[in-house]
Prior knowledge:
The structure holds 2 protein chains of 2 kinds. Chain A is α/β, with parallel strands linked by helices. Chain A has a single domain (12-331), classed as Aldolase class I (TIM Barrel, Alpha-Beta Barrel). Helix content of chain A is 31%, strand content 18%. Chain A contains 11 helices and 18 strands. In chain A, helix 1 links the parallel strand 3 (28-30) and strand 4. The radius of gyration of chain A is 19 Å and the shape is globular. By secondary structure, chain B is α/β, with parallel strands linked by helices. Chain B folds into 3 domains: 12-108, Translation factors (Elongation Factor Tu (Ef-tu), domain 3), CATH 2.40.30.10; 120-225, Rossmann fold (3-Layer(aba) Sandwich); 233-271, Dihydroorotate dehydrogenase, electron transfer subunit (Dihydroorotate dehydrogenase B (pyrk subunit), domain 3), CATH 2.10.240. Chain B is built from 5 helices and 16 strands. Chain B has helices spanning 39-42, 88-94, 130-142, 187-194, 206-219, and strands at 12-24, 28-34, 48-51, 65-68, 71-73, 78-83, 101-108, 120-126, 146-153, 170-175, 182-183, 199-203, 227-230, 246-249, 252-255, 262-264. In chain B, the strands form 3 sheets. A 7-stranded antiparallel sheet of chain B has the order 4-3-7-1-2-6-5. A 7-stranded mixed sheet of chain B has the order 11-10-9-8-12-13-16, with helices on both faces. Chain A binds chain B through residues 33-36, 40-41, 43-44, 56, 64-65, 68-73, 75-78, 80, 82, 85, 228-229, 257, 277, 279-284, and chain B through 10-13, 52, 59-64, 105, 233-247, 252-253, 258. Flavin-adenine dinucleotide binds at residues 48, 53, 61, 65-68, 81-84, 86-91, 128, 131, 232-233, 235, 261 of chain B.
Amino acid sequence: MSEALAAPDTTVDLAPRNPRELVLRNPVMAASGCFGYGQEYAQIIDVQRLGAFVSKGITPKPRAGNAMPRIAETPAGMLNAIGLQNPGIRGFLKKYPPIWQHWQVPAIVNISAEAVDDYAMMARLLDEAPGVAGIEVNISCPNIAAGGYCFGWDPEMSADVTRAVRAATTLPVIVKLSPGALDIIGVAQAVEEAGADAISLINTLVGMTIDTRTRRPVLANVTGGLSGPAIRPVAVRMVYQVAAAVKVPIIGIGGIASLNDALEFFLAGASAIQVGTALFVQPGILMRLIDEIEAYLAANGLNQLGELVGRAHPAHRADVTADSDVALAVAEG
Amino acid sequence: MQSAAGATMRPREFLAELLAIEPVMGDSAILTFTAPEGFAKAVGAGQFLDSLCRPESAHDPLLRRPYSICSVDRARNTFTILVRPYGRGSAWLINQPVGTLIDTLGPLGNRFEVQPKTNRLLLVAGGVGAAPLVLLAEEAVRRGQSVAYMMGAQNAEGLLPAHVLPEEVEYVVATDDGSAGAKGFVTDLVGEYLRWADQVFACGPEPMFRSLRRVVLANRIGNAPPVQVSLERTMACGLGACLGCVVETKHGMRTSCVQGPVYDMDEVIWS
Ligand SMILES: Cc1cc2nc3c(=O)[nH]c(=O)nc-3n(C[C@H](O)[C@H](O)[C@H](O)COP(=O)(O)OP(=O)(O)OC[C@H]3O[C@@H](n4cnc5c(N)ncnc54)[C@H](O)[C@@H]3O)c2cc1C
Ligand SMILES: Cc1cc2nc3c(=O)[nH]c(=O)nc-3n(C[C@H](O)[C@H](O)[C@H](O)COP(=O)(O)O)c2cc1C
Ligand code: FES
């Protein structure tokens, strides 16, 4: 008998500098707001096989969400303005962690707030909750103290939230960046410095669509978050830029709908990926990606997923100098 | 509204082969498809399917489109949907040739709930809202209950052909131009049937619900007969995960794809 080839190593350590650890069996995660609380998809896929999943965004108080319509389809994408409908941190804690504590798959809780103290309060409550493997901090929220300016658009405000959450919990903390930031590199470096274990990006881009028959915005909320394949090139670019500027692991998000899309993110520097909108179209996509990533590594003679991460960067490309690549990142014309 | 007793089926993604296309109601069509094993026996009236209305390799239109299950053939294990060409997705679907495999997710959603004591069902249909009520009529007739199926359209051509309904059903129609049945709105006919009916079930466009509600509130005694409505909302996931499809009820926000599309009329907060 010939010795069977060992399966490639797809594990990912998302919190290497945190003793509480966040090690995923594979790099495939479900994105916040697109996977409910894990149970919704459990009836149709084997949720336990996932690298991890991220819950719907939780807020300090229960929220009923926005008026309908909340969703509008756009070219190769969609706009959503759900309005963070959720039971609030206390209602959430009673309901979901007790279920998750019997699950193998790491459950990550996405938190949103409009004040730094509220982020910290939620992180404190989550710290000892059973069945919670980590926190993803959604900083694409208006900061009431700054007149509604989005936390995630400003490096200082992003760092304030990160620092407060870091101080409130020893759980692994992932900070999820907003693509609305003018200086995405500055925000990434600020949250790394402030104690983020990992960075995920991107959240949705703010967009809008108008019904020409009624002459009104389609969404009741007027604007919404753009997601799906339409945003993928923006997301790949931001992951690429951030990967060159920070050391913490990066989770790539934005329009991933196939193996090829996932590979783009790994090559740009992501250690793991999240899938959102594509789940609505192909509920089996996460299971397929897990299998296809492993098969790809094996077929290409790679022993570890890590061998792929960041390979598109100049250090790995003999033909390019770092300088010419920076120029590429800046030139948009 | 709850899932009916007996066999139920968890949602799954499957390829449904298009077997037949029957043009009905002017530009619309009834499409017949193959189903996964056990499907025809397990689904119930009110439930729907989420169909991918494009080639799989394309990105537009991105999201699946929900279509109510219109009827099932238990012996052959096939099902039908009734599609009106409205925009891009439905136009694509209705133009596929027989033999096409359609990526389908389902069965999804809850069912119309017929109470054990009910003997007489009044069904009120508008446009493609006729679809889920056809299956409800089939189920009721199989149980030996009496069904009055009311449908309104602009003209005779827009009505569901009578042969689509079981023979035992009393088919009552109204048209705007009087070319078939009574001249006027279908909801004008509802009043006189309210005393007869033990339960009312409706599916159609929003304006129909508004006038139906007006007629019901003006004519019924107390809360009898109760009225169940199947509402249409834009959907994304179809599985209760995205919260994009909610209906506001007296008990809070309810997802249309899991806790709907069927609601008790009195529970819905009508805007
Ligand atoms: C539970 C449920 C059951 C359904 N059952 C059926 C059914 O049995 N038969 C059937 O034909 N359809 C049914 N629909 C509607 C169907 O899902 C699609 O919305 C419809 O086919 C239009 O899709 P499209 O891609 O053709 O149009 P799109 O390209 O999505 O629409 C074109 C334009 O019309 C608008 N629009 C889309 N649909 C409507 C609408 N219904 N009313 C007003 N404006 C609209 C869109 O916002 C867009 O601006 C059901 C919907 C739900 C939620
Ligand atoms: C319906 C919907 C709801 C979302 N809700 C949240 C949320 O509560 N918190 C959050 O951080 N991101 C939320 N997102 C953003 C996604 O997690 C993801 O960052 C974004 O959709 C891009 O990925 P995609 O193109 O794969 O969907 C939501 C996205 C969608 C489509
Ligand atoms: S369509 Fe996503 S919750 Fe109903």
